[in-house]
From TrEMBL:
<feature type="transmembrane region" description="Helical">
    <location>
        <begin position="126"/>
        <end position="153"/>
    </location>
</feature>
<keyword id="KW-0812">Transmembrane</keyword>
<keyword id="KW-0472">Membrane</keyword>
<feature type="transmembrane region" description="Helical">
    <location>
        <begin position="75"/>
        <end position="95"/>
    </location>
</feature>
<keyword id="KW-1133">Transmembrane helix</keyword>
<feature type="transmembrane region" description="Helical">
    <location>
        <begin position="31"/>
        <end position="54"/>
    </location>
</feature>
<protein>
    <submittedName>
        <fullName>Uncharacterized protein</fullName>
    </submittedName>
</protein>
Amino acid sequence: METTNMTDTQQLTLNFNAKNHLLTVTRWAKFLAIIGYIGSGFMLLVSLFVLTLSSFMPDLSQISPSPVTFMPFKVLGFAYMALAVFYFFIAYYMYSFASKSANAITLNLDSELEAAFNALRKQYTLVGIFTIVMLALMVIMLTVGLITAIATLSMI
C-alpha cells in the first residue's frame, strides 16, 4: 500500500456536489447501520436460543455416527454470538461515520469530518481483518476436508 505524507498546510476542500454526494452516503450508511443493529440483535437472540436449547438436547455424536455431527450446539451458539458482536461493531462504526459526516457537512467542521473518516477507517480495518480470518478458515477447512475424504476413501 502506498502512503502519502501530508503536511498541515495542505488543505482539501469539498465543493457543493461532493458535499451532496457525501450527504447521500451518510443517509444510506445510517440506514444500513440501523439494519445492522437490528440484524445483530436478532443474531444475538438466536445465539441465546441455541445456547438455551443446547442444554436440553443430547450430544448429537451419541445419536448419529455421522462425522458431521461432531460439533455440539454450544459451539454453534457461541460462534453465532461472536458473529453478532462483530456485526454490531461494523454497524457501530458505520453509524459513527454517518452521523459525524452529516455533522461535519452541516456545521462545516473539519475535525468532525476527520473523526468520521477515522470511524470509516476502523470499519474497513475490521472488515479486512475478518475477511483474512475467514479466508484462512476456508483454506483450513478445505484442507481438513480433503484429508478426511482421502483418508475415508483409502479405508474402502
